Amino acid sequence: MMTDSSLYAARVPIFPRRVSGRFRTLKWAIMIVTLGIYYVTPWIRWDRGPALPDQAVLVDLANRRFYFFWIEIWSHEFYFVAGLLIMAGLGLFLFTSALGRVWCGYACPQTVWTDLFLVVERWIEGDRNARLRLHEAPWSARKLRLRASKWAAWLLISVATGGAWVFYFTDAPTLLRDLLTVSAHPAAYTTIAILTATTFVFGGFMREQVCIYMCPWPRIQGAMMEEDTLTVAYRDWRGEPRGKGLRRRQAEEAQAAITRAAGPQIGGRAPAIPMPGLSGARSGAARQDGPGDCIDCNACVNVCPMGIDIRDGQQLACITCALCIDACDEVMAKIGKPRGLIGYLALSDAPREAAGGRPRGAWAHVFRPRNVLYFSLWAAIGMALVFALFIRPEIEMTVAPVRNPTFVTLSDGTIRNTYDIRLRNKHGEPRAFRLSLTSGSVLAIALEGTEDLVTEIPANAQKLQRVYVSARPGGPAAARAETALRFWAEDLASGDRAHKDSVFNGRED
Ligand code: SF4
Ligand code: SF4
Fold first, then answer.
1. Which of 19, 118, 128, 308 to mutate to test the pocket of ligand 2 (most atoms within 8 A of CB)?
2. Which of 106, 237, 302, 452 is deepest in the core (most CB within 10 A)?
């Protein structure tokens, strides 16, 4: 049956009010640190010698290398990157299981850049009330000027964001000069353009829509959170019934003052989508008979960047940024009530708290078997990576026997095998390696392209050296199907040696 109702709902803009408090301060600090790391890192120099790049952090796609300060990862060592990615995943699992969506609320790029864009928006257009009025106002010269200024500032931030990203992939000062002289590779301009557009749109216009509708992470996190997870919650047994009863007058006065400061609540409130696995809404604990501490001032809603009401219970849209905690604590201080009507709380503690008991300490929630398991896996992989980093051989050599054919018989009856030996020189200067072999049988070694047994490898490069091993006619190695042998490579400068085992194939009579 056809109905007139539409499944589409246009976005209602959200104008979060400025708030101050301990969590806001923490968010400022994290924002400054994360943005500082992102923008500054490509400009840190690190001397690696004349043949190697002097950028501390560099993803050198052309040469398939990754430089991170003193660590250099070659493409064949990709397991380090894989290990770091697994660690990052486990770290997210650990934090989500212990503290809910702290990643989303404090450090996710979408949150950090949206926060930055909001700072600009407030700076140009004013706080919530002023922005609401501007939004409602018809287009005028003033509105056009404010909007144009805001969009221009957002665009500058977006270009800087896209620009900073490409600096990670090539020498930053050189690329900056090329970009300014319009002589950089087209890929650089394309990347900057794409990242500029996504930053501008995601941070300026889509904001909470990215978190609610585009990002799959909230759904995944819902499966990782449980009732022992500490997360932002409203103590409904303390807050309800709202603003009623004996303190109505006091509540109404406080509410009027705060509402005047906060401005009216217009429709920018997201629907309350319950967080899967966490029973959806409120604690369900018993409410008190008298009036609750919540004066229904909407301060917690007005500061929320997601436009939700935490009093509806835990919701998929809540990124646990804790700004509603700061807002409500401010209100509680004004009406002379204890802080913490909204606070970090585990739902498993709600009945105990509602009955007048003390909640378990934060550590009891953090040190749970699941979190210990996540941390143990995370630490084990981290230690394995550090160990692997320190035992990396100075000389890296691989040996690949050429098996088509396995051997050739020369005119004098000599049996010859061919091998491809790959040597890597990870140093900033050319190196010479002498190749040799040891075996239980008499075998001779020769190098293609050189009379002696020394092969030169340019700085920071690898070389494939073809090697021939021969057994004299009638000797034991020539007559045996397989003879074990060991190739040696000696660095003539340092005297360091490396070896790889292989086999020599003879004619089995
Ligand atoms: S800020 Fe606190 S008092 Fe005000 S509506 Fe929210 S929960 Fe109630
Ligand atoms: S309800 Fe809003 S302000 Fe409160 S933690 Fe969730 S996203 Fe942040």
1. 308
2. 302
**How far away, in angstroms, is 257 Cα from ligand 1 center?**
13
pLDDT at position 273 is 57
Considering every ligand atom shown, identify the ligand nearest to the alpha carbon of residue 330 and give its number: 1
| Cα(299) to centroid(ligand 1), Å | 6
Q: Are 305 and 114 in contact (CB under 8 A)?
A: yes
For domain 396-505, which CATH number applies: 2.40.50.460, 1.10.1510.10, 2.60.40.10, 2.30.30.100? 2.60.40.10
310 Cα–ligand 1 center, Å: 9
Note the pLDDT tens digit of each residue in 204-216: 999 999 998 899 8
* Alpha helix segments (H runs only) across 263-361: 299-302, 323-334, 350-354
The answer to whether 202 and 158 have CB atoms below 8 angstroms apart is: no
CA–centroid distance for 83 within its chain: 14
Does 258 sit in the ligand 2 pocket, CB within 6 Å?
Answer: no
Atom of ligand 1 nearest to the CA of 296: 5
pLDDT range class, residue 257, cuts 50, 70, 90: low
* CA–centroid distance, residue 96 to ligand 2 (Å): 16
Is residue 321 within 6 Å of ligand 2 at its C-beta? yes
The residue extents of the domains of the chain are 22-223, 225-361, 396-505
Asked if residue 423 lies in contact with residue 463, where contact means CB atoms within 8 angstroms, the answer is: yes
Number of residues assigned to the chain? 509
pLDDT in tens, 354-395: 888 887 888 888 889 999 999 999 999 999 999 999 888 888
For the record, the structure tokens of 102 come out as 């702290």
Name the residue of 22, 26, 235, 318 whose CB sits within 8 Å of the most ligand 2 atoms, as the mutation to test its pocket: 318
Task: Name the burial class of residue 9, with classes exposed (0-12), middle (13-18) and buried (19+) by CB atoms within 10 angstroms of its CB.
Answer: exposed
Cα pseudo-dihedral 238, 244, 246, 251, rounded to 10: 90
Q: Where are the alpha helices (DSSP H) in 303-424?
A: 323-334, 350-354, 362-366, 369-390
- DSSP-derived letter for residue 274 is B
Q: Residue 275's pLDDT band (boundaries 50, 70, 90)?
A: low
